Amino acid sequence: MRTSTEGDLTAAEWDARLGALSLRETIDGAEAITLDAHGPIVTYSRKVFIPLTRLCRDVCHYCTFATTPARAGKAYLSPEEIRDIARAGVAAGCREALFTLGDRPEDRYPAARAALTQSGHESTLGYLRDMAAMVLAETGLLPHLNPGLMDAVDYAALRPVAASMGLMLESSAERLCERGGPHYGSPDKRPAARLAAIEEAGRAAVPFTTGLLIGIGETRRERIETLVAIRDLHARFGHIQEVIVQNFRAKPGTRMADRPEPSLDDHLWTIAAARLILGGAMTIQAPPNLHDEAALGALLRAGVNDWGGVSPVTPDHVNPEKPWPHLDALESATARAGRSLRERLAIGPRHALDADRWLDPALAPVVRRTIDGRGLPRTDGWSPGTGDALPASRLAKRGPSATFDGILERALSASEVGEADIARLFGAEDGDLEAVLAAADALRREAVGDTVTYVVNRNINYTNICLYKCGFCAFSKGSTRSERGPAYRLDLAEVSRRAAEAWERGATEVCLQGGIHPAYDGRTYVDIVRAVRAAATGIHIHAFSPLEISHGAETLGLPVQDYLARLRDEGLSTLPGTAAEVLDPEVRAILCPDKLSADAWLEVMRAAHGVGLRSTATIMFGHVDRYEHWARHLIRLRTLQTETGGFTEFVPLPFVHMEAPIWRKGLARSGPTWRETLLMHAIARIVLHPVIPNIQASWVKLGAEGVRQLLDCGVNDLGGILMDESITRAAGGAHGQCLDRDAMIDLARAAGRPIAQRTTNYHRVEDRRLALLEYQQ
């Protein structure tokens, strides 16, 4: 059956199609779509529930949340009460403050109007705005607002203080508002009014939650009509981040206390229908507290991929008779269904990844700095370069999932695994994560054995003055003025001195890179090579990024290949693969818009390999990029390596954020998470096998313990001791400027692996005469 979200199937057509399927067939189809789109991940939001007011102008016949002034005691929670709830949430690790309230109670109750006047507010929405702003500013919790019907003016007022908002459509059936229906006497439950409010949310670019309430008298056909209406609104605006399929619960003291509740099968059918109609990309939610724990696995199989907000602090004020499941129990139930429970924010991952579109400019940086590459919150408390402790040891709560097993098998067996599969590998969690890491380690052993290698080298960064404005770079300076440290330019005598000193201290390599100084041209780089070669005849000169090569060739009016040949003849040995960042135009347009393009970087490397200069390859990841960008980068490297064979190694470089201009402006994430860092090294091993045999980990970014752990994840090389690392240090890195031989040996020993010194081109070094021989050859 068709499962697209193209919007070309009417409610009548869906009714006929679904009517022809058994419940089992409907659920099986929904489960397949869910797993294909979301894998085994099931999300939830750790929240506090703030019932701003329980007064409401509506009289829904099933509701126990709304009450009267006499029963409420007071019309609104006070700022102090709200602050206390929010602070309790922070203490319990919550990230969301869910404000729930009745719809415009001041229109019905004088007590509400009086309370608002006393607090200095004209409306409930005005008070809500101020309280949401207070919670956001004082606690950092992201507000999600459920204030009822709103128009464009209301959304504009509330959007700056809310990560998301919501309004349950419940049903598009107008007849439920007629006398005897559950919404009779509730003007805000008119479907036309609610659909208009949801449409206005789309126009206002508000990430939005909506959904159905089933079992209140609607037919299955009317549920389908409701789902199609939601589908069509989302197709126009893209703003609906999740759809809740909630089952009616009969509550004592209401007019519907004796109404039968929908069966589990009825709920499962509606969830599955929602998945089929709304498609794989939509998040489908069902409250986990409205069925017994034993039924949660069935809800997941029917198409649920989100449990909604679950609070470790506050009750479900809408369904107080049904307490939230303990988060440990929810995680266990999810794992028993073969899924992994993961936290999300109040704003869903798809919308969080596009924060500039979906969030107020003041909120976008808050969210962006909080998320990983898939839009879920960072939960491990670690970022590259910080020196913070690594996350606790991994403990898989389930084995590899069947769907993921197929992806990994394709990646291991196919010579050219595709972008979609690679991107899915980066989403690995739990048993899937362990399977990827184990596969990478096995490939490492097959390709290069158990010996860990390193090179004795020295960094010489000859200037930090640069014409370019790369958003990630805290090393470069725009002039000779002091900007986060002094600007400098080493003269040739100092470059020579440092190269000679490196050789005397046992280095086999000098690595030379710098900013693009406005006074530099192609002759400058030739002079640097000559100076180093004269000072240290036998040393390997590993120098000049593709950006420097391109600049040098352009300033001399030479083809890149001719310029590279000239540098080679002067003594250049290999090129570092930096300036690659992420080889995708979408990323580079944000990260380094004035830098050479991805295609230009590849062309310089192709030319270098063509004149006999080998090079490294890198990626700098975890900033404005996503998993599909990482996949494209790896594929482009693999394609070029298959053509030229010129890359000696691949070096993932996690983005160090602390002093990076783009992060300080709130435009980038806070580097990759530890899970993502593990996966980048492991997936690189898998995708680049066997054409690039060496995967290196950067101790400068990760620290000794981080690198040690990566030796079990496909890594075989520790890079160089460096002696004078300064680029990561300028970005705020805390792992020092040198890791000497003894530290390298200790690191490998801690991993239970043998270690050997190597040359730049991965020949073993017993003494430096072999390094000299490599240069002479």
Low-pLDDT segments: 1-6, 479-483, 725-731, 769-777
How many separate helices?
Answer: 31
Instruction: Give average pLDDT, whole number.
Output: 91
Based on CA atoms alone, the radius of gyration comes out at 30 Å
Largest sheet: 9 strands, parallel
* Anisotropy-based shape: elongated
Termini separation? 65 Å
Could you tell me the number of beta strands?
18
Q: What is the subunit arrangement here?
A: single chain
Q: Determine the structural class based on helices, strands and strand pairing.
A: alpha/beta
Give the tags.
three-stranded parallel β-sheet; disordered N terminus; disordered C terminus; alpha/beta; elongated; nine-stranded parallel β-sheet; 777 residues
How does the SSE layout of this entry go?
Elements: H1 11-19, H2 23-38, E1 41-53, H3 69-72, H4 79-91, E2 96-101, H5 110-119, H6 124-139, E3 142-146, H7 152-158, E4 164-166, H8 191-203, E5 208-214, H9 220-237, E6 240-247, H10 264-278, E7 284-285, H11 296-301, E8 306-310, H12 327-336, E9 340-344, H13 349-352, H14 355-358, H15 364-368, H16 402-413, H17 419-425, H18 430-448, E10 452-455, E11 457-460, H19 492-504, E12 509-512, H20 522-535, E13 540-543, H21 546-556, H22 560-570, E14 574-575, H23 585-591, H24 598-610, E15 614-621, H25 627-644, E16 647-654, H26 661-664, H27 674-688, H28 699-710, E17 717-720, H29 727-730, H30 741-750, E18 755-757, H31 768-776
Parallel strand pairs: 1-2, 1-8, 1-9, 2-3, 3-4, 4-5, 5-6, 6-7, 10-17, 10-18, 11-12, 12-13, 14-15, 15-16
